[in-house]
Design a protein that fits this description.
The protein contains four helices and four strands. The chain has helices at residues 14-22, 45-50, 59-69, 91-103, and strands spanning 2-8, 28-34, 53-56, 77-79. α1 (14-22) links the parallel β1 and β2.
C-alpha cells in the first residue's frame, strides 16, 4: 500500500481535501499536514518518515521541507508540480481539488 502525505500551508482546505478525495482508495493510505505554525496538523518528522510520497501544494512547501526538515529525516519521494520526482501540484490538480471542495460545500 502506498502512503501519501499531502502538504499545504494551514492544513485547512487543500491538503485535507486531497486526503478526503483519496481516503477510500484501497491501494492508498493518505494523510495531510501543513507547514505553517498555525497548521491544523503540522508537518512532523514522523509524518515525513511515514510517507512513501509527499505531494506539496506549492513549491515553497517542498523547499521548506527540504531545507528545514530534511537534515532531521530521510525523505521519501517528494512531489510537487504533478510531474516528476522533486518537481507544486499541477494547475489541473488544483482545479480538481477546488471542484471537489465546491461539491462537498467546503468552500
Amino acid at each position: 500500500m502506498t502512503k501519501i502525505l499531502f502538504v499545504c500551508s494551514e492544513n485547512i482546505y487543500r491538503s485535507p481535501t486531497a486526503e478526503h478525495i483519496y481516503a477510500n482508495q484501497t491501494d492508498l493510505e493518505v494523510k495531510s499536514a501543513g507547514v505553517g505554525w498555525y497548521a491544523q496538523q503540522p508537518v512532523t518528522t514522523e509524518l515525513l518518515q511515514w510517507a512513501d510520497i509527499i505531494l506539496c501544494m506549492e513549491e515553497e512547501y517542498k523547499n521548506y521541507i527540504v531545507k528545514d526538515l530534511f537534515p532531521v529525516c530521510s525523505l521519501p519521494e517528494l512531489m510537487t508540480d504533478g510531474a516528476a520526482k522533486n518537481c507544486a501540484i499541477s494547475p489541473f490538480m488544483v482545479f480538481f481539488i477546488a471542484q471537489a471542495m465546491l461539491s462537498l460545500q467546503i468552500i
